Amino acid sequence: MNCDLICSGPSSNNVKLHTKTIIAANYSILNNSINNNHYVIWFLGPNYRYIDLNNPNEHHIFKDCLPILKIQPNELHIKLHPGASPQKLKFFKQLIKNKYPDIKFFDVPIGNGSMGCLALKYALKNFNKVYVCGMECNIGKYEYNTDFRHLYTDKSLYTHSRYKQITNNPSATHFASDKKILKQLIATDKERIIPINSSGLFTYINSH
Q1: What radius of gyration, in Å, describes the C-alpha atoms of the chain?
Q2: Which DSSP helix (H) or strand (E) runs through 5?
Q3: What is the pLDDT, as a whole number, of residue 110?
Q4: Which of 30, 180, 200, 203 would be 148's cystine partner, CB 3.0–4.6 Å?
Q5: What is the pTM of this model?
Q6: Which one is the CATH code of 3-206: 3.90.1480, 3.30.310, 1.10.1670, 3.40.50?
Q7: 4, 17 Cβ separation under 8 angstroms
């Protein structure tokens, strides 16, 4: 069984998906190529740690993302954070469950790496081939998929939980640790990783 992995870079614009199983990292869940005929596995960073228990609707996932999400995710894999309150994680999951009653939750262990890279690692453990788009590996000017670019570039949508993500280059921030993960994955599973030709990952793999 194969799957598609969608990350947030521009090589995921208007992408043609190859399988019925989609793994989406963070805001890539908003990619317009995904529809409800897909089985959708959503990988999400530890953003739950910023939720205000008294005002959860101001959290960017509930304020900016879910109101425009057109599909129903089947699984949500949430990366844990060492300094985050278990109460906030439980609360966050319950809010998601209220909206998507059939969703299944999984915890992603604490560790380094972007959600896209951690999702790739997961995909290679559970699927035969992984078709990857939107993973740019810090090659070229970093931009976002046009389906949700405004969520990163519209300053009126800034919240505390996203300020650092927006004002710093996320690709550069994560890529130091991603390189270690990718080096290992390429060494053992290069033939099973199938990146779209326009992606930074395609260039990166073929240069190693």
Answers
A1: 16
A2: strand 3-6
A3: 83
A4: 30
A5: 0.88
A6: 3.90.1480
A7: yes
